[in-house]
Amino acid sequence: MRRNLTPGVILAICLTLLASSAFARGPRADSPDTFSANELLDSGHQFFGSVSRGLALAIREAVRRWGEPDGYILGQEGSGAFFGGVRYGEGTLYKRHGQRHRVFWQGPTLGFDVGGEGARTMMLVYNLNSLPELYKRFAEIDGSAYLVAGVGLTAARADDTVIVPIRTGVGLRLGVNVGYLKFTDAPTWNPF
Question: Mind telling me which InterPro entries this protein's record contains (predicted)?
Answer without folding.
Answer: EipA-like
